[in-house]
Amino acid sequence: MQGFNAPMTQSVQRFVKQVGKAINTHGLIKAGDRVLMGISGGKDSLSMAYALASRRKWLPVQYDLQAVMVQWREHPIPDQELEQLDRFFAEIEVPFRRIPMTMRPPSFKGEFNCYLCARNRKRVLFELAREEGWNKIAFGHHMDDIVETTLMNMVVQGRYATMKVDQEFFDGLLRVIRPLCSVRESMVARAAGSLGLPVMGIDCPLKEVNLRKDIKRIVGELSEVHRYARENIIRSLSNIDLEYLPAQS
Questions:
Q1: Cα gap 164→226, rounded to integer Å
Q2: Is 149 within 8 Å of 162 (Cβ atoms)?
Q3: Neighbouring-strand partners of residue 176
Q4: What DSSP element (H or E) covers 222?
Q5: Which of 197, 212, 217, 232 could covalently link to 46 via disulfide, CB atoms 3.0 to 4.6 Å apart?
């Protein structure tokens, strides 16, 4: 892992600028915000943490950051990897905490899937944010994630819905933001590789049967048809031609 105060490479500069552009376009982070970052240990959330921490160093806008990892007891992380994460967050000057949790709580009643797992993690972060006064929670979902979610909703549920870039909860007391919304996964991967981020392999029990993997492959094929397929799918979410849609009953 290299020093994170070293000059940025071109790929990292482009990544951080693209994140900053999305934040400014959507007004995701404002002066005085207290932002809790959900950290999985993967390239997306670590790259997001680096970008948000870097922006604070040269912007006149000040905001608080804290990184939180929900650590599943069923899948313990090796001490060496945890130490690397601790060093990374110490170097970018962001407080980091880990919260041990059970992946399959009794409330699941034996059922387990990606939706329940994600909801369990979000519940922990929501409770922490409300208890400690954090007004925003940032997740590392990038452009590909948003496109894949949109297509999954259409194909599996017959519903035109997506991940919102800025979503309000509890009458506006808490907002979920996605600062990587305008960044392709390939750009995130290049930045993470250039930085030498301490990316961890996420031990997911459903990683081989995840529907998202199939949708990801389809998105890749669509991009071979049109190089800006991802961007155009995102653009279509706010470029709706009602004249050519059926009337709602």
A1: 24
A2: yes
A3: 137, 167
A4: helix 211-225
A5: 197
